[in-house]
Amino acid sequence: MNLKTLTKRIFLLDAHYPRSIIAFTLLCTIFFIWKIPSLEIDPGLRSLVPKNHKIVKNMELAEELFSSNEIIIVAVESDELLSERTLLKFSSLHDSLENLSSVNRVASIYNHKYIVPDDGGFEIQKLLEKIPSDSLQSSELIETIHASDIIGNLVSADLNIMCFIAQIIASTDFDEIKFREKLYGIVSGFEGPEKIYLASPIIFSAESIDSVKRDMRAFTPIALGLMILLLILSFRSWTGTFLPLFVVGFSIIWTFGLMAWLDISVPIIGGLIPIMLIAIANNYGIHIISHYYEYTKIDQNLSRIEILKRTMKRLGMPIFLAGVTTVISFISLITHELSKVTEIGLLVSFGIAVSFLLSLLLIPAILILVPRPTYLGKDTSLQFVNNFLVSWGKFFVRNRVPFLAILFAGMFLFSFGIRDITIDTVPDHFFPKDSKIRKASQVISRTFGGSTQLNILVEGDIYDPLSLKHIDKLMSHIKEKNQAVSSTYSIADVIKKMHYSFNNGNPDSLIIPSSRELIEQYMFLYSIASEDNDFDLILNDTDDPSYTQCFVRIKKVSTADLMALVDDTEDYISSNYYDDRPIKPMLTGPAALLGAVSHLVIKGQIFSLAIAAIIIFMIMSFVFKSFIGGILASLPMSLAVLLIFGLLGNFGIPLNMTTSLLTCVLVGVGIDYSVHFLWHLREHIRDGEDLEEAITNTLKVSGKGILFNGISVIVGFSVLMYSVFMPLKAFSVLIMASIGFCLIGGIAILPAMVSLIDPQFIRK
């Protein structure tokens, strides 16, 4: 069965069973909407990365051994930090944090221990044996703080800020939002007059979800309102306004309903699904309405069924091609390295397919039942738009050579910005610089070396002196080669400190001892001197450990620094630890995950875009039976992609998880406009019109659909420029620029190119 036969059968279905189609659509919508309340949100970055990725596997192993991968830093600032009143007050904060169910351990001055030399050995002392009650005791505490090497780790150099470092049990099903609410509830009871700052990837993830929800609640109604206003001005009828929006609404509901039925959680970038569907899914309905009204205006004596028959005959193939190519552009994300991006690509493909089918079934079924707008009988209806499009087309056809020369020269120069594209997957950069969460992160990074850490899981005979020397060497390499690193901590540091204290503070003894028996004796002495097991986070077994966990704190978090740190550490590990080497280091923790996500964003962006572009070019070449046809159909899309990457580089907009999805929108929208223009141009030429007349009539009919769709989407998404969530703000700017350029491509670039080269495929 060929496409014309299929289109005819769809039309017969619309004509004979319009009420059944409407009822079936509503029943399906109820079915999908039923499960939407059970949707869960997963704001974590780990869900973006494939489960079989080595970093994810390493993190799972580390959690199995040590239960902790994430940290939260709570910093307290006060001019009287070490006063009796302040220390008494915040000792309760320490206890409250430890009592949180998801907290494994809290480190602060209230429980910190340090090693001091003693006659014939060393002693373990608590930093804060009791709260100082007079100036003498306060002075002694200050001396102890300086002697215990916690300046810059737990207390600031000016003694005005102290921090609490909470190790979090963050499994794959960890609920960041609920934990954030509990934490804020505790901290709010201690604020004033002291200032309290919180920083952690966990907090950033939870705040990101809140920002997306808040923006979607606030801006979606405004965006839809603006789109409705523009569609009313365009079509001047409620039918022409709301039918495309109904289709978009149903496609969004069905998509999220499918996620709920398949038990797929909504990731941090899941809020872009409705944005992308609004940008693309109303395209088909607007074209059908536009053609239906235009044919009604041409011949008022035809019945609604006859006009729809003519509309579907003209639009069947271009809408089918537009739908298929757009679906393919998002299905190409199956090759993306980020698993959640792949999921979203498939889900948006489903939503677009739904909107495509509903545009062919539901919209004609409703148009058959409702009367046509009365204004269509007037000779002057939409005359202004027709005159504008005709004049627009004639201008670019008449000035095609200078226009195309300026266009391609400008695009060539603009493309140099691609060299300056940056990657940014750091969660706290999702917020404005003056936001509370960003300021807190800056204070903590400046004072305590940051809230993000790289964890290194080491497998081996840990108490073997050679193993400890390799661990110490690895930590030294990381700190020396990476300026972003503020501090490192490992079991090697503890052993060196014990050996140093055991030898009465002899500087030459701050090394790993060469005797395994001596190392085991140190650990035994420490276990006797200390009441608690202080090595839960760094040793899987104090008596005979086979795994240890090392920590690298990062003071200034940028994607470039993280990627450089992760890459350098991986290169060092692969070059020095292989085969029968005494230790096997493995990267884990938030920094390793961010580094992995950054690499996957780049690889997935390039590969999925290339796959989509090649497949769509081949489809267009096959459909138009011409290599030139494939090039022309793909030209606006290709130029739009070049423009967007140029914008990213020239205006310093970083590439992240959200902007990596933009190229699929570009491919989908750009190819839709091209298909409608070229297909209808060929139809007009087949009807005997010359090239210039065919371009004029194509712009009068198809041009209105392209124009109405493009302007409504651009204006609708303009409100998102005021979002406080930076990725969404950047996405809105880019999507407006891309839709705008695709709009220019469909009604300016293609008419100019076709009139210049007069390709033979449009005459076949």
The share of residues in helices is: 55-70%
Radius of gyration: 32 Å
How many distinct beta strands? 12
Helix-strand makeup class: alpha+beta
Distance between the termini: 22 Å
Major beta-sheet overview: 4 strands, antiparallel
Strand order of the largest sheet: 3-6-2-7
Unreliable sequence segments: none
Approximately what portion of the residues adopt beta-strand conformation?
5-15%
Shape: elongated
Mean pLDDT: 80
Tally of helical runs:
23
What do you see in this structure?
- It is elongated, with a radius of gyration of 32 Å.
- It has helices spanning 3-16, 18-33, 54-66, 84-98, 135-147, 176-188, 201-235, 238-261, 272-298, 304-331, 339-369, 383-398, 400-414, 436-448, 465-481, 491-502, 516-529, 559-576, 589-623, 627-650, 662-686, 691-717, 726-757, and strands at residues 41-42, 70-77, 103-107, 113-118, 121-126, 161-168, 195-199, 266-267, 452-460, 485-489, 547-554, 583-588.
- The model has no long low-confidence stretch (mean pLDDT 80).
- With 764 residues, the protein is of the alpha+beta class.
- Strand 4 and strand 5 (121-126) form a beta hairpin.
Brief summary:
With 764 residues, the protein is of the alpha+beta class.
Which features does this protein show?
single chain; 764 residues; alpha+beta; four-stranded antiparallel beta sheet; elongated
